[in-house]
Fold this protein.
Amino acid sequence: MDSFSATAARMPDLRQATIDHPERFRVLTGERPTGRLHLGHYFGTIRERVRLQAHGVETFVVLADYQVITDRDSAGNLRENVHGAVLDYLAAGLDPRSTTIFTHSAVPALHQLLLPFLSLVTESELHRNPTVKAELAASGRALSGLLLTYPVHQAADILFCKGNLVPVGKDNLPHVEVTRTIARRFNERYGRVFPEPQALLSDAPELPGLDGRKMSKSYGNAIALGMTADETAAAINRARTDSERAITYDPDDRPGVSALLETAAVVLGRSPQSIADELGAAGAGALKRLAIEAVNEFLADHRSRLAALTVRDAQEVLRVGHERARDIATATLREVRTAMGMDYTSV
Ligand code: TRP
């Protein structure tokens, strides 16, 4: 069994443990604020966060603004993206009283953990990270120091609050491995400070974008949670299908049709195959109408909650989240410095 299958096989027990013993877990997860959150985010991670919160698991969500510049030159419209993400979290049901939402850049002590952590990994370990390699290839740029070391930075994101459970997609598994290695080596060298966190893999299959490729804002194939019903209809109507009348589920040969089936299926909680069977010879027009109606109905509540929120609400949530994250990061950094013998002034 490879390490991915081994991790996947542990998920049902781990998920059950979060229900039976929520007090044993502290969750840290997050994303890069590169654009509006979309359905892929919702089914990939946000729904799981809301579920963990409902079971009483303490949760931290980092909007990793410094990670935005790992594979691109411009940070983009960070202010708008950060506020938008916070509002989507609130609309999706994250409660800022129990979930701490913060940005990297507002928590300086978190970044200082990077220095001792970098001393615990070798250059060849950094170069071996498959996700870093894939992002480097996709960026079409030279490897920056930040891209090479960002998995270590991500270890600081997780360990600053002693997170021991990290809900992530498959592509972030190598970073959780790096985090475990760093925690273990730090504890061996300086005495036990950190937990060795476990990854919690999403149980939803990855939702393709409307063209069958990975759903991504940069491909223009995403359905943003905050789109209007008309924008959603336009995006789905623009999606390319094929001229075959019969609707069949065949992701390899019919990526467009299959992506629409998967989109409708995930929001309806059905299988793509059953929707294909139901549509039969009805054609792509009928499939699009079904998908539009299903997505818009699914997102209607989210969108009406979103409409009732303002940027000020996001700012208030961040103010509280930043203060809490800073307090925790400062306390952890103090512990780290004490463990390392860098405590010079206390008696
Ligand atoms: N690398 C994650 C992504 O791009 C985002 C992220 C940053 C993250 N820090 C994290 C995820 C800590 C989990 C834990 O999706």
